[in-house]
Structures are given as C-alpha cells and as structure tokens.
Amino acid sequence: MRNAIELYATQHDGVPPGYPNNDPTQPASLLSFFHQFMKYGENLSSFPENTFNGLVNVRVIPDADELPTEATGQFGWIYKPATKDFRIDWPGTDSKGIRFYDY
After folding, report:
1. pTM
2. How many domains does one find in the chain?
3. Residue range(s) defining the domain that contains residue 18
C-alpha cells in the first residue's frame, strides 16, 4: 500500500490519494481515497484486507489531526494523506514485541 500511495503521488504532482480532485487544500476523504485507487486502476485492482481482523475499511485522519497513538482494531487500516502514513489497525505485537501498528 505504501508503494501504491507513493506511486499515486508521483503520478499526481506530489499529491497523495485522498484529496478530492487531487486538491490538498480540500479535506481528505475516504470516498476520494477509494475512488482514486479503484477508478483509475493504475495502482490497485482491489483493496487489501487486514489479515488480523478481516476488514478493508480505512480511517482517514484529517490533516490537522495527529495519528492515533494506539491501534484499536475497529478498522482495517489508518491513513493520513498529509504525511502518507498508512498503518494497520491492529493492537497486537509480533514475536519480538514490536507493535503491528508500528510496522
């Protein structure tokens, strides 16, 4: 997903997916994020599932807000277009004690 976000931004003058009409002065939206990936089909043919909770839904974080400090597992993914930060929303840790949310 991170590569697809970077590719989209490269193809759209540095504007990451999520902004309506690729206008970063407008509030980012989930609808724009999905539409930009699926309509154009250049980056993804389907959206990935969070393998821990089976969800594909994405929580889009507004530009002025901080990313959550913890995962809740309520969403498949958490995305902040302003920073292109894309994280799995899962509160567990791997065998080394690293939070999945920090991957």
Report:
1. 0.91
2. 1
3. 2-102
